[in-house]
């Protein structure tokens, strides 16, 4: 290739100026599919709380409510990667919308079973059907990856926005669910969530111009065979353990202080810190792989709640959680960017869904470990669990992290 031709090629491939958030949503169709996705994503933070309130209020058993929601979580972890593989092969509209309809029917069935005082096993069966809920955030990230495949800087900004949206939905969802159940009737949260999920998915899948093309005959290997991907999966699992254990031990700590009602607001500060940090992180120019640095920051900042808990002051703990949360969104954004970069073409939704599965498994394990530590040790000592999980993520990232996968070409 002549030198001038090579230079022209490099100029064409170089983005002129990395768009910020406003220019990002100036892309044709971006606002419409983002609006639909946010409507559909908000209920993900509502359903578990709504189910617990609804079941515990009707049956008088938090143990039963917890078992039902845990069954739904396990079913989602198992069904998620298979459903994402179908999305990759056949397209988002053809798979995600019917799967959402099945999930909505499962939520309505749960509502009716509770309302009609059906046997306990029907609650498990109905809530398990909600496992067909697609990885809604992953669907949106896949669209950004398709639209911005030639502009890594803009894709970095889009991934940061998506992570901030996740934090916002998980922060507002439980609040909205609790408000609806307490203001109207116990089933109001589940009913509203089902309506929002279906309406949002209808709007999202109607935007066909931005939908990634299906890869029906893709012979790409499993995402798990990608170099660095297994290590990233372990990092996501350990990060999920940070989230799950922090929630449980914070509630136990607030309860021990006689302020259990304030636990939700305290945890919301952690999500708020993560949301703000994610948006700020997206506004920065990406400077190459920096997952290990993000993991190191998360491991360091997760020691702050442990130290703050020793003061016996819930406001001090709240401030520590706000600061600690600022490390989680950059870590998730960087890790998900590596997953997108090194998952084989035609398997992107599956790759991201595997990470969500790892995250959910980590949340479940972290919740169990945090609960054990609060009962066997003390609520203050139990804050060592999320700190240890963050340190484990750092060790895995440093030893075999996805940054090494940067040298691996995509198929």
Automatic annotation (TrEMBL):
It holds the Pfam family MFS_1. The chain crosses the membrane at residues 60-83, 95-115, 121-139, 191-210, 231-253, 265-284, 291-308, 314-339, 351-374, 380-401. The keyword Transmembrane applies. Signal peptide: none annotated. Keywords: Membrane, Transmembrane, Transmembrane helix. SUPFAM superfamilies: MFS general substrate transporter. This is MFS transporter. The lineage of its organism: Bacteria, Bacillati, Actinomycetota, Actinomycetes, Kitasatosporales.
């Amino acid at each position: 290739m002549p030198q001038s031709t090579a230079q022209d090629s490099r100029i064409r491939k170089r983005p002129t100026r990395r768009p910020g958030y406003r220019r990002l949503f100036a892309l044709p169709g971006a606002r419409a599919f983002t609006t639909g996705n946010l409507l559909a994503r908000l209920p993900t933070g509502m359903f578990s709380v709504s189910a617990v309130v609804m079941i515990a209020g009707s049956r008088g058993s938090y143990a039963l409510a917890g078992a039902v929601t845990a069954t739904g979580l396990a079913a989602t972890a198992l069904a998620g990667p298979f459903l994402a593989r179908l999305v990759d092969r056949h397209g988002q509209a053809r798979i995600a919308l019917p799967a959402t309809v099945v999930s909505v029917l499962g939520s309505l069935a749960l509502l009716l079973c509770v309302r009609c005082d059906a046997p306990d096993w029907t609650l498990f069966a109905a809530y398990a059907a909600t496992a067909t809920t697609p990885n809604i955030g992953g669907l949106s990230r896949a669209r950004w990856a398709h639209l911005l495949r030639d502009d890594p800087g803009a894709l970095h900004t889009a991934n940061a926005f998506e992570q901030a949206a996740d934090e916002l939905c998980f922060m507002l969802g439980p609040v909205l669910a609790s408000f609806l159940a307490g203001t109207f009737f116990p089933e109001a949260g589940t009913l509203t969530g089902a309506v929002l999920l279906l309406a949002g998915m209808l709007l999202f899948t109607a935007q066909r111009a931005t939908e990634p093309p299906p890869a029906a005959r893709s012979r790409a290997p499993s995402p798990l065979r990608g170099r660095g991907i297994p290590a990233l999966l372990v990092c996501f699992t350990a990060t999920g353990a940070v989230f799950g254990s922090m929630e449980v031990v914070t509630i136990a700590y607030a309860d021990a202080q006689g302020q259990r009602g304030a636990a939700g607001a305290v945890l919301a500060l952690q999500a708020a810190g993560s949301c703000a940090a994610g948006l700020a992180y997206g506004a920065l120019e990406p400077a190459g792989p920096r997952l290990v640095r993000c993991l190191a920051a998360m491991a360091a900042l997760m020691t702050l709640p442990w130290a703050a808990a020793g003061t016996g002051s819930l406001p001090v703990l709240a401030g520590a959680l706000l600061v600690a949360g600022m490390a989680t969104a950059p870590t998730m954004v960087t890790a998900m960017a590596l997953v997108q970069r090194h998952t084989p073409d035609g398997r992107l939704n599956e790759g991201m869904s595997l990470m969500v599965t790892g995250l959910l498994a980590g949340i479940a394990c972290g919740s169990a470990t945090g609960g054990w530590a609060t009962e066997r040790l003390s609520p203050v000592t139990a804050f060592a669990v999320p700190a240890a999980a963050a340190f484990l993520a750092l060790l895995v990232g440093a030893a075999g992290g996805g940054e090494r996968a940067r040298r691996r070409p995509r198929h």
